[in-house]
Every structure is written in structure tokens, then in C-alpha cells.
Amino acid sequence: MSFLGPGAGWFSNIDGSWENGRAWNPVTRQTFGGVVVGRGDGFVVALLQVGED
Questions:
Q1: Which of 35, 30, 33, 34 is nearest to 52 (CA)?
Q2: Long-range contacts of 35-39 (CB under 8 A, 24+ apart)
Q3: What pTM was computed for the model?
Q4: Which alpha helices (DSSP H) does 1-53 contain, by range?
């Protein structure tokens, strides 16, 4: 997202590499929840994904 500028910082609740498996810290009460947050240039963008079995 170019409006955040070249120095934007990105964060996620998903940890680990694809080769070693993935893990996450829950952000909702749903079975699956993912969040990505970007910040920069005075803006904050949050993307939230939830899912249930």
C-alpha cells in the first residue's frame, strides 16, 4: 500500500516460517483469526480475517 510510504511498518499475529510450520496468537474467539497491521505516513491499516470450522 503505497500511501503508507516507503518506511511503513507491517505486523501480523502469525509467526514462524512456512518450512517450520506456522503458529498464531488469537485475535478473536473464532477458530481461525488473522490480523495484518500496517502503519506509516500518519495512517494505520488493519486487515482482519476470521473463520470457523
A1: 30
A2: 36/10, 36/11, 36/12, 37/10, 37/11, 37/12, 38/1, 38/4, 38/8, 38/9, 38/10, 38/11, 39/4, 39/8, 39/9
A3: 0.68
A4: none
Amino acid at 1: M
Residues 46, 27: contact at Cβ < 8 Å? no
- Cβ–Cβ < 8 Å for 46, 28: no
Q: Can you tell me whether residue 19 is helix, strand or coil? A: coil
**Which tens digits make up the pLDDT trace of 5-32?**
999 999 888 776 666 666 777 777 777 7
Query: Residue 16 class from Cβ within 10 Å (0-12 exposed, 13-18 middle, 19+ buried)?
Result: exposed
Enumerate the β-bridge partners of residue 11: 37
